[in-house]
């Protein structure tokens, strides 16, 4: 078994297509297929079910892909540790963050880090909270910022608290209100994130507890799209309070909800200390320092 086959396995699992995986790996499809077949023969299991239109991992395939990701992450940590020991100061840092954190807090931190460590390659990914936590836990991401899952195995350090707020267009009938009773939302059409987002689950729970059903619900996968629809005046929304600082849409009115939703603690998510790379430890310290300074 070699790292090349593991890398091929992971990519096929991500793409669900030998054609797309081969293209992204810059190898021929027959070569890729043969390497996967050789790996299946070596392990004695079928890793993928193949039809004319799709490729799906088997149960054994999912297990092997998960283990392969962990092996590749450990290999990357070994490489970075050796390079650090040799004083070459090279490495890669993958960070998963939420939309609001990326827009509001991350630019300054990233800019300063990139200036101080120009040889460290940075990859910043905007993801849903569960994807961030799962990525850190599996070793696919070095760090994350978001809401940890209930049974996370990542290290979760609180950074700041956020809550949900009501938002509407400035010309909307509720635009003059400092607070909006939850019951009023039953009279509105609402734009929200899709069901794969923790914020959507929090909004759904809030409305359910208030026994409120909006007239209509439409879903998007970005806050920018939601706020643009809300600005048109036909829809309202419930969004994290931080969104009001990065909305970029002047024609919006934000208000408290009554009763007030529970606050949510945004956390720095990292791997256990023994799996931390030097670059990840340094970047995590930058994030901690930023929020320690703003809390004074």
3D architecture notes:
- This protein has 296 residues and is an alpha/beta fold.
- The chain has three domains: 3-65, Arc Repressor Mutant, subunit A; 89-160 and 265-295, D-Maltodextrin-Binding Protein, domain 2, CATH 3.40.190; 164-262, 3-Layer(aba) Sandwich (D-Maltodextrin-Binding Protein, domain 2), CATH 3.40.190.
- The protein is built from eleven helices and 13 strands.
- A hairpin with a 4-residue loop joins β1 (48-50) and β2 (55-57).
In short:
The chain has 296 residues and is an alpha/beta fold. Helix content is 45%, strand content 23%.
What is the radius of gyration? 23 Å
Please tally the β strands and state the result.
Answer: 13
Helical/strand content category: alpha/beta
How many helix segments?
Answer: 11
The CA-CA distance between the termini, in Å, is: 53 Å
**Order of helical and strand elements:** HHHEEHEHHEHEEEEEHEHEHEEH
**Count of the domains:** 3
Quaternary structure annotation: single chain
User: CATH homologous superfamily name of the largest domain?
Assistant: Periplasmic binding protein-like II
Q: Quote the beta fraction.
A: 15-25%
CATH class of the largest domain: Alpha Beta
Q: State mean pLDDT (0 to 100 scale).
A: 90
> From the coordinates shown, what is the CATH architecture of the largest domain?
3-Layer(aba) Sandwich
How is the main sheet built? 5 strands, mixed
Q: Low-confidence segments, ≥5 residues, pLDDT <50?
A: none
């Amino acid at each position: 078994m070699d790292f090349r086959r593991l890398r091929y396995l992971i990519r096929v699992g991500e793409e669900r297509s030998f054609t797309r995986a081969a293209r992204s790996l810059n190898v021929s499809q027959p070569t890729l297929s043969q390497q996967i077949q050789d790996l299946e023969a070596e392990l004695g299991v079928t890793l993928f079910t193949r039809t004319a239109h799709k490729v799906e991992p088997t149960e054994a395939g999912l297990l092997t892909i998960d283990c392969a990701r962990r092996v590749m992450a450990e290999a990357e940590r070994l490489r970075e540790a050796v390079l650090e020991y040799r004083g070459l100061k090279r490495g890669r840092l993958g960070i998963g963050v939420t939309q609001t954190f990326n827009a509001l807090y991350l630019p300054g931190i990233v800019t300063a880090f990139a200036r101080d460590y120009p040889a460290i390659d940075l990859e910043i990914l905007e993801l849903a909270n569960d994807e961030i936590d799962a990525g850190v836990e599996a070793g696919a991401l070095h760090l994350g910022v978001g809401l940890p899952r209930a049974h996370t195995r990542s290290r979760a350090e609180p950074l700041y608290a956020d809550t949900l707020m009501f938002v509407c267009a400035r010309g909307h009938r509720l635009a003059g209100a400092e607070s909006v009773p939850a019951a009023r939302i039953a009279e509105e059409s609402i734009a929200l994130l899709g069901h794969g987002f923790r914020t959507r689950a929090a909004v759904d729970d809030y409305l359910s507890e208030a026994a409120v059903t909006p007239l209509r619900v439409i879903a998007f996968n970005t806050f920018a799209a939601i706020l643009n629809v809300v600005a048109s005046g036909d829809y309202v929304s419930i969004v994290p309070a931080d969104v009001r600082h990065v909305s970029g849409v002047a024609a919006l009115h934000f208000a408290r909800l009554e009763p007030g939703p529970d606050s949510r603690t945004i956390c720095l998510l990292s791997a256990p200390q023994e799996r931390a790379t030097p670059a990840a430890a340094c970047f995590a310290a930058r994030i901690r320092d930023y929020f320690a300074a703003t809390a004074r």
